[in-house]
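Case study B.
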Amino acid sequence: MSAQPPQIRVAVSTVIFALLPAPDGEIRVHLPLVRRTRDPYAGAWALPGGWVCAQESLSDAGRRTLAETTGLRPSYLEQLYTFGHPERSPGGRVVSVVYSALVRNHEAAGTGAGPVPVDNVSWCPVDDAVGLAFDHDEIVRYAIWRLRSKVQHAHVAQHFLGERFSLAQLREVHEAVLQKPLDPANFRRQVEGSGAVVPTGERLTGGRHRPPQLYRAVLTPESAGPFGRAGPPS
Amino acid sequence: MSAQPPQIRVAVSTVIFALLPAPDGEIRVHLPLVRRTRDPYAGAWALPGGWVCAQESLSDAGRRTLAETTGLRPSYLEQLYTFGHPERSPGGRVVSVVYSALVRNHEAAGTGAGPVPVDNVSWCPVDDAVGLAFDHDEIVRYAIWRLRSKVQHAHVAQHFLGERFSLAQLREVHEAVLQKPLDPANFRRQVEGSGAVVPTGERLTGGRHRPPQLYRAVLTPESAGPFGRAGPPS
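Model:
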């Protein structure tokens, strides 16, 4: 590594989701927002967060700033993603490590989880959380997209293969990654039942009497990367 | 946010996986390592990486440092996790944003992907990558764990529910998160076929003639968090 790197400040932000009734009575995903009292973006709504202190871990900073601003103390926080675009914060570069958690609705009670804000904190239906400070709109969009895609299956192994592959080739990749043999008949049943691959109508070439069928992955926006595209576009 | 935060330097590291033949002939997951030429940890093997420059994005810093040290230029890099323990780097706090990619073995060729290191770069079987500089052992263990767990299904919805729930309750959570109705019979078939839940033998209490069965999630270490435990332990 070369000489002194440029000054970049490190912060944390938290995105907390709960299923709560919206004003129209529908159950929707909500998150808590805090109204900023100082510049930049004084008066705008933002994600709970703050600076990372010298001797605390990143997750402790997430827990501390969340508890200080909203009173929420979820049993765990999961690191979601780190946002660090050079221009995301006016007045100097800030990298924000974003933590997230899902909470039950009783955990949200008493922390402003109703139509009236409590102490600058208000729970907002996620699709209404727009016009926030900094790049928090983008952070929220990403967090809800992650949640929605995670309820479905992750597609990984086809990133070690080309566009077309036999089921045996697919199984061998799973076996190499998991370091354990997989029963071919069960594997076939699971994969064909998952809808993750479709036959191409072509067969592997070669001298065999009945060469195996070739398949391709069914790619969705959520599965476009090896770790399930676990990151925002670009 | 309060006054000036403490000085924390920001770096990137990259973990690149390829399926390559090991010396014993078995196909295993490998990754490229670089032998450090300066302190701290001069002479030790480490992940490719470096400081983030003032005007570049985090992913560009990952791409640039990877290309500069190994010649590798994968078509995308995915942000894996940010490591920021206060004591991970001697001589002052460094937060490292780790990027990862899977590459085909032909992309690894010519960049030291054989038994002899090329220009301080050597591809190492992932389970042999120990004794590395900084906390890079921990980063590698986490990356391979993520890869191995991602080939299986992510379990999400039960984090909005209690320990026991009916299939209808589970379906309603999926519908609220995905914002679309799901056919109950298909949903039941998918969930029962996935092995993600098991019946508890109990039924929902109530006055109905045949109250619905209660199920619980089959939790594995990989599924212990709402986003599939996508983070290292603590």
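The helical segments of chain B are 58-70, 105-108, 136-150, 167-178, 184-194. The remaining cases will be described in the next quarterly update.
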